[in-house]
Amino acid sequence: MKKNKIDTKHFIYAVCHLNVIAVRIKPEVTEMLITQLLFGETCQIIEKKNKYWFKIKSSVDETIGWIQSSQIQLISDHDYKRYGDDYALTLEVCQPTFNEDISKFLVIGSRLPLYDGISCTMPDGNYVYNGLAAPAGGLDYSTELFVKVARRYLYSPELNGGKSPFGMDALHFVHQVFRFFAVHLPNDISALQKMGEAIDFIEQAREGDIAFCSDDKGNIIHAGIIIGEKKVIHVNGRVRIDKIDHYGIFQKDLHKYTHKLRIIKRIFPSETV
Fold first, then answer.
1. Fold classified for 3-79
2. Which end of the chain is more exposed for a tag (fewer CB within 10 A), N or C?
3. By three-state DSSP, how is residue 85 classified?
């Protein structure tokens, strides 16, 4: 089918007004999920295919993919900037937002545009949100709070491309936790493992450090977050807590190592602790 470029004289930005929507590698519902947009997240529309699909660039992590055009609301460039500059992030695992006519259940990490502590503003009006929320500037970092936020995702099932408690992949899990503290990580695991300070020994690791694991060829294929002495929270079948040592991640119920440790990186500098 013929693909058409977006007319830049009209709306070229949009916001997700549903709980969570799929971003796919190609414009078909059977194609691979590469990420998701959560409520309140914005994107730039860069291409369209017939009236059903938009190719978008996420404003959250710059991922490019295809979404169904019926699952977003078009917004002006003015609102796109406002929504991107002034928002809060939901901290409840699943909490409703509502107005007189509509109730929507928002998952943890959703955006609340122009949130004033009571309600957020969307193109179709204001929505009340009574749960806990983190400001756009991020929560004040402490190891205790960081671990508490990470543990909110426990038992979320594994889903490639997922970033909600109803489906999560390893890299998105790391992204989502750090985002609550205003740390925006690259969406490529190779780029991510080049960030921060290398930690030489597992005994020197602390809460908030990222453990990277590799395959037999040395390629980085997995990441998790250190949450205590020789403990890591990561995604393997589900978001879970396992033991970690100099060799890798040991899954007790399987009685074996599931991931080989390659390197540990510290994103938060020592003075923030």
1. SH3 type barrels. (2.30.30)
2. N
3. helix
